[in-house]
Amino acid sequence: MHKSSRLALYHFWVAFGLFVPAVLLGAWQMWMRSPSPAPLHDRPDIYYASVTLHGTIMAYVLTTFFAMGFGYAVAATSLGRPIRGTKAAWIGFWICLVGTLMAAVTVLSGNASVLYTFYPPLLASPWYYVGAFLLIGGSMIWVVLMSINMNGWKRDNPGQPVPLAMFATTATAYLWAWAAIGVLLELSCILIPRAFGWTNLIDAALGRTLFSITLHAIVYFWLMPAYIAFYTLVPQAAGGRLYSDTMGRLTFIMFLVFSLPVGMHHLLADPEHGSGFKFVQSFLTSLVVLPTLVTVFSISASLEIAGRHRGGRGRLGWIRKLPWDQPMVLAVGLSLVMLGLGGFGGIINMSYAMNSMIHNTSWVTAHFHLIFGGAVVIMYFAIAYEMWPRITGKALRSPRLARWQLWLWFLGMMIVTIPWHITGLMGQPRRIATFDYDISTVAPMGPWVIASVIGGFVLLLSALLLLVILFRSQLGKRVLAAPMQYALAVNPPKHVPVSLNGFAVWNSIVLALMIAAYGYPIGQFFFLKAHKVPAIEVTSQSVPAQELK
Amino acid sequence: MADASSNPLQQPLPDGTIPERVVVQTERRWIAIMAGMLIVMMAVIVVTGVTHALHPPSNVEVIDPQTLHLNGEFVESNLGTTLEPDGSITVRIIALQFDFVPHCVRVPANTPIRFRLTSADVIHGFLLPNTNVNTMVVPGFVSEVRTRFSQPGEHEMPCHEFCGLGHHGMVTHVSVVAKDSFPTQGLFDRTTCAQE
């Protein structure tokens, strides 16, 4: 096995290996909060530990490990030369894995039920924070390696356009580095010192604000591998060409620039920020719609080229002619449907005013499960099916089962999120272990919550199928796998402007935007009079008996 | 493999099947459409904010959560519903693990209402379904939201931010009664429905 293949494979296995138990937790959580009695229904404390672990794995572990593995594979295959720094990459892998296990064990021991978003002044065991810090901090080694590999290739190939797949992967790495600043500062300056008892009062509002820097851009970090597949793998799998290389580059640049100075739309209902910056960041958030709209257009156009090449006629006749039996093509179809629905919900969330109707309700949960759990994760599956033969040297066994797996994931996600949107409009809060369905305003949610539980178990079935397919393929006979091929543009770029072939200018723009958007909102906490608060440990606190219904 | 090359589906597409000029032109048109969509979106956000009086709490007022019970507007005797001299209503509530104090507040319909909330410990959330009232309650700060209930009714909803292991047992209760059945009260009286 090639060195970079082994690297990618290990990362993918950590990602998917922990993903499946996290789906199981998710399904149980939905059952738990429904009117039907679930196993352990008298243990709300386990529910909150479970939500913490589900979030930690899905948001930090699955995504970071997947992005890193995918990045190494792309660097090796798109640049057509062995990646530099494999030793550092392995060190990064082990740091991230140790961090993951440290965080997971602390949550499982019941000492860190603070959710992956931390919520100071709630306080967990320090080892949860240290674990998260190692996982996120360790992935910065990957960021540096992506940058070194892209820039090294550019030095050796002066004037040549960096292949779009690598350009986009490097954009992902820079985006992650920017995004991680918020959470790393919150962990290292606020939470870890307090959890070890080195400080007394903590600045919870500053912590929230720092986390908001991470909280929106991280979503685009999760999204990027899916978009890289849209641009560089989908047109190839469909048998066509990418409509425009330039639009691809612009899309990834726009994600880097627009997804960062916008995190305060997560704090629209918070009292510690004034309306001016809330409105400014809400406005900037709407710009992030642009790269997605560009992508939907470019990918549809690329698929149309493929469909027409395969003999499709008429305005929509080409859609039928696409090779829907290819997991990658099927996945992109399902993904775009979920992206459309989830994106619509997201526009409500980020609206300065309309957010009030659904802030912190299950509408929001429905939104990011559709976008991330649906549109993005289904592309992770398709990427795995595409990459597996290349990195293991074994053919993908049972493509039919793979198609079933993708369809089940789509259906499960729809059955889960449609009811959540509806109960969100009814005002149903998120992250509640058990509801009192006797309350008149809560009672009408009951049937919808039951419906969503069914979706949860469809998702679990799909996740188990994924494991079966990947295991069976890896145990298969070694075959000669075709090398990884990335989609060519209809008009392949011969020369691209310096600004579309690197990130120096874009990173400077991000810096300026971040100072403009966050300078005052963060700076105010250093001038605002006493607003620091005591931390409240979630670990040692006993729950009054009457709360345990 | 011999017939693979004779099958047109197996042949890769040649370069330039669509001229660069056409690609650029189509993309320009699409960008113009996108800009139009963005403008409409922003207009909707501004118009809904103004016409539906949906203003997120943004008052940035600090308060010390450790001395709430000792002095200032959140002492126990000042919690609940206050009738202001101008006929409007102010409601003061403290959120804490795991209840709202007072547990139930009563307010009249068709009256301008100002909710002022703060937390004695961790972050909580206050939401009244089917209204514009939805705010985080962050310790160290006072959240102020304004609303007007068009009809009487009971608003009950659990605290909407995770606040600890008893989070699910913490429920908001606002009882809206018809304006004429709301008891008249003096400037220094405070009413609740917590004991009922």
At the fourth level of CATH, the homologous superfamily of chain A is: Cytochrome c oxidase-like, subunit I domain
Supply the CATH class of the largest domain in chain B. Mainly Beta
Q: Give the CA-CA distance, first to last residue of chain B.
A: 85 Å
Briefly note the CATH topology name of the largest domain in chain B.
Immunoglobulin-like
Strand share of the residues of chain B?
Answer: 25-35%
Structural class of chain B: alpha+beta
Low-confidence stretches of chain B: 1-8
- Helical content of chain B stands at 10-25%
What is the β-strand count of chain A? Answer: 2
Instruction: Calculate Rg of chain B over CA atoms.
Output: 27 Å
What is the arithmetic mean of pLDDT of chain B?
87
Summarize the structure in words.
The complex is a heterodimer of chains A (549) and B (196). By secondary structure, chain A is mainly α. Chain A is built from 17 helices and two strands. Chain A has a single domain, classed as Cytochrome c oxidase-like, subunit I domain (Cytochrome C Oxidase, Chain A, Up-down Bundle), CATH 1.20.210.10. Chain A is 68% helix and 1% strand. In chain A, strands 1-2 form a two-stranded parallel ribbon. The longest helix of chain A is centred in the first third of the chain and has 35 residues, at 44-78. Chain B folds into two domains: 1-52; 61-181, Cupredoxins -  blue copper proteins (Immunoglobulin-like), CATH 2.60.40.420. Chain B has one helix and eleven strands. Chains A and B meet through helix 2, helix 6, helix 9, helix 10 and helix 13 of A and helix 1, strand 1, strand 8, strand 9 and strand 10 of B.
